[in-house]
Automatic annotation (TrEMBL):
Keywords: Peroxisome, Peroxisome biogenesis
Major subcellular location class: membrane
Matching Pfam families: Pex16
UniProt organism field: Spizellomyces punctatus (strain DAOM BR117)
The keyword Acetylation is annotated on this UniProt entry: no
InterPro entries: Pex16
GO biological process, one term: peroxisome organization
Biased composition (Polar residues): 162-173
GO cellular component: peroxisomal membrane
The keyword Transcription is assigned to this record: no
The protein, known as: Peroxisomal membrane protein PEX16
Organism superkingdom: Eukaryota
Family: Belongs to the peroxin-16 family.
Region (Disordered): 160-180
Length: 343
């Protein structure tokens, strides 16, 4: 089995551009499938989830090769932090990948549960998934020593797959420091093709910004504000539980969830934040737009205006394409919980 895995990893390294192109093509296909035929929504989501899972696995192979090929390439603070936490080993890596995979398949699992178990089966599965995510996020909060959770627990793709070169037996272009264990570019590489760019990247990586700090220090310990992170973690589960208690037509689940989310955000805004924490807080503010797509506000306010926009845009060039995609996806967020859960 290990030999088969090694062969597949070699295949990925030797065909990175082609694999990346196939992934992009399949993702584009999922945007036009909904509403085209019976069970097209489930087929689209199955393709989307499968491609995302494969991309996650491919990234573990290609990102290591990209870093080895160009260890001094600048990277975002988000990737610096997430890579550092994953390399810390232990349970953090296992929990992070578990949470990521659950998020990738949650809509597909919800659709399958509705098909096999009806509304009750779907409701139980949605509750179970939210419980799993709460357990994972609680574990990540503890393992990170009470630091703010980011929108993803794994790094984003920050390399161009077309530049990945398969391993070679020729002389490597880097050397490893005995004391730090870090990889550095050889001086003689500067005289080779592309050497100037590598020199610039090296100097940028040493600039006295937040890059000079330890990756773990890119997020502050929450201290007395950790209650706000606990509220943000448990909010989706509370929303599902109150939905089961009061029903989707009641304003109680909606208002309880909105109050918890606003309280968490206000607490985050009222404490000193690093640039990475500010970016995450801004993203959480944008997530409030999902409340326009949740009942009962959606049925009583948003839906009528959305229908009017789609109808009015039908005869307008370019805008009609966007309106068509919006119309195809409209039944999805009206029907499936995880399309509008936002977290």
């Amino acid at each position: 089995m290990s030999n088969l895995v090694k062969k597949y990893e070699d295949f990925v390294l030797h065909n990175a551009p082609q694999i990346s192109g196939i992934e992009s093509g399949l993702r584009s296909l999922t945007y036009i499938l909904p509403g085209r035929f019976n069970d097209a929504d489930m087929a689209s989501e199955a393709i989307f989830a499968t491609v995302n899972l494969m991309s996650l696995y491919h990234d573990t192979i290609l990102s290591a090769a990209a870093h080895q090929q160009n260890p001094e390439a600048p990277t975002s603070n988000f990737n610096r932090y997430t890579r550092h936490m994953l390399l810390s080993g232990g349970w953090y890596k296992k929990v992070a990948y578990t949470l990521t995979m659950v998020q990738m398949v949650e809509v597909l699992v919800e659709m399958g549960a509705r098909k096999l178990g009806g509304r009750k089966g779907r409701g139980r599965v949605v509750l179970g998934i939210e419980v799993i995510k709460v357990v994972c996020r609680t574990a990540l909060l503890k393992l990170s020593q009470n630091r703010m959770l980011l929108h993803s627990a794994v790094p984003e793709r920050d390399y161009d797959p077309s530049t990945i070169q398969p391993p070679t037996t020729s002389k490597p272009g880097t050397w490893t420091g005995k004391r730090t264990g870090k990889h550095h570019v050889h001086v003689d590489v500067i005289t080779q093709k592309g050497g100037y760019d590598q020199a610039v990247q090296f100097l940028l990586s040493k600039a006295l910004t937040e890059r000079a700090s330890s990756p773990v220090d890119l997020l502050n310990r929450l201290g007395c504000h950790k209650w706000a992170e606990w509220v943000f973690i448990f909010r989706p589960l509370v929303y599902v539980l109150t939905l089961r208690r009061y029903g989707p037509k009641s304003y109680k689940p909606y208002l309880i969830s909105l109050t918890l989310e606003l309280g968490s955000l206000l607490a985050s805004l009222n404490r000193p934040q690093t640039s990475l924490e500010k970016d995450e807080t801004k993203r959480r503010c944008w997530l409030l737009l999902y409340y326009l797509l949740r009942n009962p506000v959606y049925e009583r306010f948003t839906k009528e205006r959305l229908d009017a926009f789609v109808e009015g845009a039908r005869k307008r060039p370019l805008i009609s394409l966007f309106a068509g995609i919006l119309r195809d996806y409209q039944p999805l967020w009206e029907k499936w919980h995880f399309y509008t859960s936002g977290y």
